[in-house]
Amino acid sequence: MKLAPALLLSALTLSACSPKAKAPDPADSPLATDVVQIKSSVLSTKMALPGQLLPYESVDLYPKVAGFIQEIRVDRGSHVRKGEVLVRLTAPEAVAQQGQAAGALAAAEAKLASDRATYERLANAAKTPGVVAENDVNIARQTAASDAAQVKSASESASVARQLGAYLEIRAPFDGVITARNLHPGALVGPSTGPAGALPILQMVTANRLRLVVAVPETSVQSARPGQSISFSVPTLPGRTFQAPITRMAEALDIRTRTMSVEADIPNPTGDLTPGTFATVQWPVTRSYPTLRAPSSAVANDQQKQFVIRVANGVASWVEVTTGMSDSGALEVFGALQPGDYVVKRGTDAIKPGAKIKPVTAK
């Protein structure tokens, strides 16, 4: 059946005037995004810190008196025992002073013996009335007492002179090894504070016992206590790991570096470890309380602040955070977050606050 022309025209007119269906806007569609859940746990990890192996004892050897080197019995690399004579000096002035002091002591002792004998003779004679005046006895007693004081003073001077003579020998202060020999026989030497003390004669260190010194950042210094074991390795012995208990902690931060010096004593009886070697220390880092963790990739930065993108009810929001330690890819985050919150796995400032998110739970 054919439609009348008027009826067909009317149908076309109504079709043209009717509104068209609106196409969906892609911007209103939620963005499918991987999200992960914030976890809470107690941190227990290790961080690599640089350290150094130093001699347990180290000393520069200077003479205590000025003189000339007569003999040096050791050289670089010599192993010495405590008390062993290393250097002999000659100092004519010290020898002369020692002789003068000994002579003065002998003269004082002879005078004391003579005056004491005189006093005893007068004291015995005074027992008979009228033989010796009492004043003469008192004078003799005072003279003997003065002589005794002179002997004491001369004895002390002689002792000092003998000590100066002993200073002409330099002995090893501990068991160790000579690491440097700077002077040779004939050189004029003296105490380190004098004009002849520019260089030490010898330098020596202990080799069978070392100090492992590590500077620990203030953020990690509370993680360990004396007695706790730490491990370290050295580049000269690849593949080997050493253990040692923490022996000393400075208990105060260096205000220039914001670190605390920590030491461990390292026995080295076989000499495998060399003083002065750098070491890599595996420093333990623990918390006494649980902290929140998120993947390192979840933390974004827009050059003004650090943040993670929390997703709640399909809407994104930025939460400003500070970060702590990393452990197996999980990073400590501190901010207005709760355990169980979902955050975007790969944070980026391209996801703006208020954006609609279709969360996809990621591993």
Topology:
Elements: H1 5-17, E1 31-37, E2 39-55, E3 58-61, E4 67-72, E5 79-80, E6 85-90, H2 92-125, H3 134-166, E7 169-171, E8 176-181, E9 188-189, E10 202-205, E11 209-217, E12 229-233, E13 242-249, E14 259-267, E15 278-295, E16 300-301, E17 306-312, E18 315-327, E19 330-335, E20 342-344, E21 357-361
Parallel strand pairs: 1-21
Antiparallel strand pairs: 1-20, 2-11, 2-15, 3-10, 4-6, 4-9, 5-8, 6-7, 8-10, 11-14, 12-13, 12-15, 13-14, 15-19, 16-17, 17-18, 17-20, 18-19
Helix pairs in contact: 2-3
CATH architecture of the largest domain: Beta Barrel
Mean pLDDT: 84
Number of helices: 3
What is the helix/strand order?
A: HEEEEEEHHEEEEEEEEEEEEEEE
Distance between the termini: 66 Å
Strand order of the largest sheet: 2-11-14-13-12-15
Global geometry: elongated
CATH fold naming of the largest domain: Elongation Factor Tu (Ef-tu), domain 3
Largest sheet: 6 strands, antiparallel, barrel
Low-confidence stretches: 1-9, 11-19
**Which CATH top level class of the largest domain fits?**
Mainly Beta
Total count of domains: 4
- CATH superfamily annotation of the largest domain: Efflux pump adaptor protein, beta barrel domain
What does this structure look like?
- This protein is an alpha+beta fold.
- The chain has four domains: 85 residues, Beta Barrel (conserved putative lor/sdh protein from methanococcus maripaludis s2 fold); 91 residues, Elongation Factor Tu (Ef-tu), domain 3, CATH 2.40.30; 65 residues, RNA polymerase II/Efflux pump adaptor protein, barrel-sandwich hybrid domain (OB fold (Dihydrolipoamide Acetyltransferase, E2P), Beta Barrel), CATH 2.40.50.100; 75 residues.
- 22% of the residues lie in helices and 39% in strands.
- It is built from three helices and 21 strands.
- It has a six-stranded antiparallel beta barrel with strand order 2-11-14-13-12-15.
- A hairpin with a 2-residue loop joins strand 17 and strand 18.
- The two termini are 66 Å apart.
- The N terminus is likely disordered.
